[in-house]
Amino acid sequence: MSFPNTASQSRRNAGRRPQKPQPRLEHWRAWFVLGCLLLMFAALLGRGAYLQGYNEEFLKDQGDARYTRTLKLEALRGMIIDRNGELLAQSTTVQSIWASPRSITLLPAGEERAKDWRQKNESDTVPVSAGEVRKLASLLGVSEAELHKKLFEERRNSAGETQKKPDFVWLKRQMSPAEGKAVMALNIPGIYAQTEYRRFYPAGEQLAHVIGFTDIDGRGQEGFELTRDKTLAGKAGSRTVIRDRRGYIVEDISTIVPPLDGQTLQLSIDRRIQYLAFRELKSMVEQSHAVGGAIVVLDARTGEVLAMANAPSYNPNSRAKIDPAQRRNRAVTDLYEPGSTMKAITAAMALDAGKVKPTSTLNTEGGRMTIGPATIKDDHPGGVMTIEQIIQKSSNVGAAKMALMMEREDHYNFLKSLDFGEKLNSGFPGEAAGRVRPWKDWRPIEQATMAYGYGASVSVLQMAHAYQIFANDGQLRPITFTKQVAPIPGRQIIKAETAQAVRKMLEMVTLPGGTATRAQVVGYRVGGKTGTAKKLVNGVYSDTARIGSFVGIAPISDPRIVVAVMIDEPTFEMRYGGLSAAPVFSNVVAGTLRILGVPPDSPTENILLSPPGAPELLEET
Question: What the protein does (predicted)?
């Protein structure tokens, strides 16, 4: 039997490290740790469900506010052209610069923005240096102070509380494409360019009152730009995109809705005739030192407006400072008492009613007729005159006697049949209806004065409209500013023979012995009627202020145009319609008939002057 060597065994065991007892996790602790993990997971799960289910709209709105943008795709506004296709209004591409003040901040003075700043900084705002602001202000043409105010200054409400910076602010509207490109070349985050359109008017002040103009947002403000705004404007499109933190578009997140461009509007206006009418009117207003003037040229066969001009005018391409008085379309909005231009209408009424004939005579009683306390006077007293001579010499007494032959109601109905006191539905904002008082209120003196243009108010457009019956064998067609394929049906107001008889009287007015010899046109027979009416100033007829007017037709043999001219308050020496308005008519008719290719109906030596030494016949009413 052998025994182990206990000594060697002891030496081997002495070289080993004593082993520590292994800790054992209690059973309940394991479940506790697992439970905590499950609770944390459940809390995360619940929070996610809450955010996704109950607070989704809030989070979506926050995300959209930071990264989503809906870009407006501007529609191209429709062109406006004249009857021959000549351009009258067109939209051109421009660049507008805007910024998001909420996404940018200003670096301290002397510091520059690092190119890799976005990668090193987690902030939602981008720093912009003072040097970049200085360059941006220079290219925009604004002061640095103004730019600082828009981009960096805090805004406070009425209670003095600080408000959040806006996410959108315009910096400069409607810059040229080259200027916009230079701004964007600065590559400043938070600064963006948007394509817009700016309206351009090639005819400038000549057609300002007809075409009107748009505001900086492309909305019509005056004229056809306003009345046909929906047709011209079209419908804007949209594009919803996601931008990254530098402002670059990452992707489209919805279908692009393309813009619907506006329609082209073709007017009845002839740009050549418009230029002629505006030139002659402006020249007379300046020559006579008048307050203003208006002219309308109608196509006698269709009722189309070939020209309508006002003076003074304004340039719609430069709208920074426009006098409101210059924006007023006098031909449509301004009312005046027509004076003796109403006498032709009075004669037509009496002739058509069978009360008189062109050769019938009336005693003008030496140019004075008393009705009650009032006395009617003629500027050129006469005795017994035919109806033709009454119109030629412009006798107030003769016109009053013709009117008093009519029943008041019949007289009133005749004026209303010519649309006096009614809007002509021209489409212009502020169109005036004029005024004709109800016949039941008329006293004899009022009916008498209405015969020669006092007691009723009209516009220049209404007078041109009414004189159609003489050019159109008694028919009255609606006024239109759009080009017609065929004439609009009209109403027969007077018999054709009545219209022809008055047409002969109107020609006599322009011949020697009449009040409008300056209305004659070389190579063409013309006719018309002058008017010189006292102007109401503060409710009282002025002793010096007058309105000179002339309404006529040409050529007499086969009328093509009706022209109405009104000169408001010329100098007292030029107050007569035969001196101020008739020459404008003559020059406009001469050019218009040649533009339209109307052959002459009279020898070129047709201008007939009064005998040497004979005074020029001019009338006051």
Answer: Catalyzes cross-linking of the peptidoglycan cell wall at the division septum.
What confidence score (pLDDT) does residue 132 get? Answer: 82
The answer to whether residue 13 is domain-embedded is no
Number of domains in the chain: 2
Q: Is 508 helix (H, G, I), strand (E, B) or coil?
A: helix
Residue matched to tokens 């190119």: 115
Query: Is residue 276 domain-shared with residue 173, that is, in the same domain?
Result: no
Of 275, 357, 329, 234, nearest to 84 by C-alpha is 275
**Per-residue pLDDT, 1:** 47
CA 99/CA 169 separation, integer angstroms: 5
Single-letter residue type at 402: M
- Compute the distance between CA of residue 310 and CA of residue 365 in angstroms, rounded to an integer: 41
d(CA 123, CA 50): 27
Whether 382 and 501 share a structural domain:
yes
pLDDT tens digits, one per residue of 391-449? 999 999 999 999 999 999 999 999 999 999 999 988 888 899 999 999 999 999 999 99
Q: What is the largest CA-CA distance in the chain?
A: 184
Task: CATH number of the domain at 156, please.
Answer: 3.90.1310.10
One of 268, 313, 340, 459 is an active-site residue; which one? 340
Catalytic residue list contains 340: yes
- Same domain for 259 and 283, yes or no, is no
| Beta bridge partners of residue 310, listed in sequence order | 294
Looking at the structure, do residues 435 and 369 belong to the same domain, yes or no? yes
Which residue range forms the structural domain that includes residue 213?
Answer: 71-104+127-266
